[in-house]
Amino acid sequence: MADTKLLIEQAYTAFNKRDIDGALALMTQDVSWPKASEGGKVVGKEEIRGYWTRQWSEFDPHVEPLAMTEEDGGKTRFRVHQLVKSLQGEVLSDSEVLHVFTVKNGLIAAMDLGDEADSIAGPSAAFAHRS
């Protein structure tokens, strides 16, 4: 599971650097990803690219992994510190959240929000304050 930890830490690093290509290189073609700032999900690398581009035009999110827990069924849970700022630097949210990853063949196949009752319904509370 050390490889999974490294893989996901590399994805967080790329995300925080706004290195979309670097992050997407760590994912399967049909990766499933939550749209935390909009609600719903996206599937596939190009949909993630579009979503992140929109997100970063409105918010400045930064996530740092704090702890990892392996689960049954090939899932890995990461507790992360998530800091969301407006583009003007105002702190909108400073919290810990859970991200649940599914890794297949050494690549990220899915990420889900593990601490919200219905992550598909609407935006995460961290993104409730639009800039």
From TrEMBL:
Domain SnoaL-like positions: 8-110
Annotated Pfam families: SnoaL_2
InterPro entries annotated for this entry?
Answer: NTF2-like_dom_sf, SnoaL-like
SUPFAM superfamilies recorded: NTF2-like
Annotated protein name in UniProt: SnoaL-like domain-containing protein
